[in-house]
Amino acid sequence: MPIEPDSRSRWKPADVRRVAHRVADMVADYLEQLEARPVFAPVPVDEAVRVATDPPPVIGSEPDAILDEFVRSIGPYPFGNGHPRFWAWVNSPPAVMGIFADQLAATMNPSVAGGNHAAVHIERQVIRWFAEILGLPATAMGLLVSGGSMANLTALAAARHAKAGFDVRVRGMQSGDQRLVVYMSEEGHGCIRKAAEMLGIGSDWLRMIPVNERSEMRVDVLTQTIDRDLQDGHRPMAVAASAGTVNTGAIDDLGAIARVCRDRDVWFHVDGAYGAAARVSSRYGERLAPLALADSIALDPHKWLYVPVEAGLVLVRDAANLRSAFSLVPPYLRTDGDAHGVGGPPWFSEFGFQQSRGFRALKVWMTLKYYGTSGYARALDHDLDLASYLSDRVSADPDLALMAPPSLSVVCFRVEPVGMRGDKELNELNKAVLERLQLSGRAFLSSTVLNGRFVLRACIVNPLSGQRDVDAMLEAVKTFASEAIRLQSR
To answer: Rounded to two decimals, what is the model's pTM?
Structure first.
């Protein structure tokens, strides 16, 4: 008997359209109802137990039954980041064009290691667009990766290969006669430490540079530390500056750090996973202009450019450094490829670790095409204006206090009722307020600790938010603070 296509794998076009229309209705309903729903609702215990114990399915289910289960047990318990009163971590709502793009990319389902197909050319176009936006030269190359952690790791791998002083790929990290050193601020992201450890440099050789009163890396201490390492016979490899720290949104003095690196032949990397996008804004465009001096940059379109997760981006100033760090093609055999032949341009797998790569570029491309840089400027300026409004409201309230100079779209504050001054008591009060706020579903903030003080942290990367949302959040914060104080006084 001839082998026929598997009947369950082949869908009739009419069935595809019917189920796709139902999914489209579910997407529209979800977005339409979002504002009226709680910002956050934890998964009920019994549902979590069921998910943790259900065996794998043996008999397949029909599409409508699967979608019914989604509506019943998955859709009601989202992360919350689509809601206009979610300002916890740097997790934006998804742009609707990005949602559509994810569906189309999954339909095509290409492997984007390389070749001459549309996904390859679109990713190269996206990389070129971002290089131009950030001011990098035509020699730049990059990759779309899962997020900021992988982008920073990839960039520092290129830095290690370029600055180690020996062939790391052949001899390994065991053979160097000098200790490679990486530098970051005390406010830098933890993924830089993970990268230093994974690259064999070790956290002992990661210098944590103190920050000033604005939580920015102290360039004077950085300079002294690099010079001391040089005098001690070590090899300064890279400085990882921040364009938007997680805690307060601080931006290091990128121009000054670039000069320090240039004068000492050190790789200048910028972790701009959150803040580099503000290069297109009217308020931070000039402040972030020195991004053009970087040897490498990490930027996450899925953070402040509203692209659905996952969409991280790494850019390296000189494509040769990125390719040399990862390519298995010997240098004397490397070519620029034939962009019009079957093989296409040099494969992305020569510029990074992954061989199997999805079509991440489509959602970035479609969202950027939808907004344009001018539309993005308006959307980011909206978020910045709303953060300023929150900061002003906090400053004007005698029972609230700003806890750090506002930077980018991060506002750190806490409840400080008149007459209550002890840090221990205030820490406990603000912890209670945050827990009540998050579980109430009225708004969702995160927290951090600054100088030993527990503070509430709002990071506004949500163009769906408005002043009334900020007002509602502050009203809830003050209500929960009053309730917590009454309970403490009993």
So the answer is: 0.95
